[in-house]
Amino acid sequence: MKLSTLSAALLAATTSSGVFAENTSLDQVIVTANNTEQSARSVTSNMTVITAEQIEEKQYQTLADALRTVPGIMLKGSGGLGKTTSMYMRGDTQAHILILQDGVDLTDAAGLGGARIENIQLSDVERIEIIKGSQSGVWGANATAGVINIITKKGGHQASVNLQIGSNNTRKISTTLGDSNKQGDFVVHFSTLNTDGFSAVRAANISHTNFEDDGFKQTDISLKFGINLAKHHRIETFIKTSSADNEFDGTTGSPLYLPAPDDNKATNQYTNIIKSLQYRYSKGPIKTRVFIRDNLVEREYPSYSSLYNGNVREIGAQLGYDYRGTDNISVLTNRKVFDSSSNNYTNHGFAISNTNNITHNLIVTESLRYDDFDKFDNVVTGKIGVKHYLNSDVFASANYGTAYNAPLLSQLARPNPVALVPEKTQSYDMTLGAYGLELTYFYNKTKDLIEYVPQPYPTPYYYENAAQEVLTDGIEASYKRSIKTIQTDLGLNFTWLSARNENGESLKYRPEHTANLNVDYYGLSKTHLGLETRYIGRQYSADHNAGVQLGEYFVTDLKADYEMSKTLTFYAKVTNLMDDQYTDNVANATGSTANYVYSNGGRQFFIGLRGQL
After folding, report:
1. Residue 182 CB partners (closer than 8 Å, separation 6+)
2. Residues 284-322, buried b or exposed e (16+ Cβ, 10 A)?
3. Is there a contact between 376 and 402 (Cβ–Cβ < 8 Å)?
4. 138 and 32 in contact (C-beta within 8 Å)?
5. DSSP string of 338-360, one letter each residue
6. 94, 108, 152, 235: which has the fewest C-beta neighbours closer than 10 Å?
7. 3-class secondary structure, 302
8. What's residue 334's pLDDT?
């Protein structure tokens, strides 16, 4: 393993200072690691938790904003708010990351890979739990790289409003209202975002300001309430609708299909309806729940006369039991249907998970799952993890898991010459932690990776399973420290990644090095000042180090907030402070020369007021 001068320097800095990967209290309750409530201390998997307080202080607006500084995660945008955004976790694509909202699978069943993260706003979010590594042993198919669970705010006495304006005529308002008593609780949330945007695509080496703007607007409405039927019995429901209108830059059409930066006709409308109904019974060591979940995504492209509908429906039940006073076992069964206008398949699953505190300082978790598919081979997956605390500040952990990724419905609908089979993955990671230091090595091996096969016009493209295995491994290191003498919090993380086939040929859009620096200063009365700098190392727009070389750039954001009163806060933000014309996504190229790239919008300014009881 060969590290560059930058990566070696960053790694040396983190390992000499003390690294803390997650700002997570050990007694915080986590629900995603094993699909049941447990303390953060007992989670053996690599985990990051982003709280509502962090979302507010860092001024994260979308899920992509919040994930950009998480070690091991890389994002690739397509030109600003509302534009298609792709994510990689430890080198795996977004189709390998299971994204949930309050446990509801957000996968766009008619899409090209996973959830549509560009449409996930955060103003109603209580916390985001990120679990890395193969999780199919707990969650089933399509959790190869990990699981991200977005948990919305609970019902209770609360009232807040947030107003924001900024560059590109951006306007946002969001409000939350909730209450509770012995009979139940509720919370209602509303938010609307509207921006004129900037040109999604620009000609290489020409500023986006020379082309027409591509606007975006989205409105979210959600309702969450719980009814306490009797002692130990409770019903919970969650309903959320999101609707969006997006302008983007299409192409000149066949046979050239060149990007059109001044396209003012290409638009799409997006609608997402999430519904969840759950009954809970909890008494002593027994915890039981029965649930029904539904996620409907509709996308329409009027300029192309195209309409896509995707639906994920799930019904299931889980029984949990605490035993020996420290251990837990849970059994779950579920039925999930993936449906679109082009295809569908059904998955029945049965899973068992167990957590044992062998001693106070030694924790072992095990999960085993059997999945029955009506169109693919049935499969057994599992994971095992161990974590040992030498004392409260020193620990070591290791995890091993197997995973299974079913072909997308959109892939099955293509004229594939050979029937697609699911992808299969094995992964493991090892972490050392000592007095704030956390250093992780991870390794993933995927067999039968499904690949896109382009064809010359007018022959239709198709998909096939790769003949070679895909290997990814790397190192994640991160640092979190409060320096009380200067009232400053300092955070630093670094990722080294190798993503390649078994011949050692690298994969596109996977930078070998990424790093993030966060500095938060609280030394001024009622004022917080924050600086966030991201480094993206060299990457390529095509496999095997072909195509356009990207990366090797820094992006710096400044943030500040001032507490005007106990109920009112003024905040401001500058993104891309140095106005760098970087790009992380190529729209069109000739060999290693970029012709068109996706815009980043340049330097942007935002201010807002946040009020709450």
Report:
1. 228
2. eeebbbebebbbbbbbebeeeeeebbbbbbbebebebee
3. no
4. no
5. EEESS-EEEEEEEEEEEEEESSS
6. 235
7. helix
8. 98
Tokens standing for residue 213: 């703007």
The single-letter code of the amino acid at 159 is A
Decide which of 2.40.170.20, 1.10.10.410, 3.30.70.890, 3.40.50.300 is the CATH code for 5-612.
2.40.170.20
Token pair, residue 597, equals: 């790239």
CA–CA distance from 69 to each of 64, 179, 214, 291, 494 (Å)? 10, 34, 26, 33, 10
**Residues in Cβ contact with 16 at an 8 Å cutoff, skipping those fewer than 6 apart:** none
The 10s digit of each residue's pLDDT in 172-220 is 999 999 999 999 999 999 999 999 999 999 999 999 999 999 999 999 9
pTM of the model: 0.94
- Domain positions in the chain are 5-612
The pLDDT assigned to 254 comes to 74
- Quick check: 120 and 420 in contact, CB under 8 A? no
Using CB atoms within 10 A of its CB, is residue 253 exposed (0-12), middle (13-18) or buried (19+)?
exposed
* Torsion angles phi and psi, residue 42, rounded to 5: -90, 0
Map residue 491 onto helix, strand or coil: strand
Confidence of residue 613 (pLDDT cuts 50, 70, 90): confident
In this structure, are strands 216-230 and 38-39 parallel, antiparallel, or unpaired? Answer: unpaired
* 3-state per-residue secondary structure call for 162-216: EEEEEHHHEEEEEEEEEEEECCEEEEEEEEEEEECCCCCEEECCCCHHHCCCCCE
Handedness of CA 108, 125, 528, 174 (dihedral sign): positive
Please name every residue paired with 171 in a beta bridge, in sequence order, or none if there are none: 165, 194
DSSP 8-state class, residue 17? H
Residue 49: exposed, middle, or buried by beta-carbon count in 10 A (0-12, 13-18, 19+)?
Answer: buried
Cβ-contact 129, 568 below 8 angstroms: no
- DSSP assignment, residue 114? S
Pairing outcome for strands 97-101 and 146-152: parallel
Of 517, 498, 363, the residue nearest 441 (C-alpha): 498
pLDDT in tens, 376-392: 999 999 999 999 999 98
**pLDDT value at residue 391:** 93
Locus of tokens 């679990």: 131
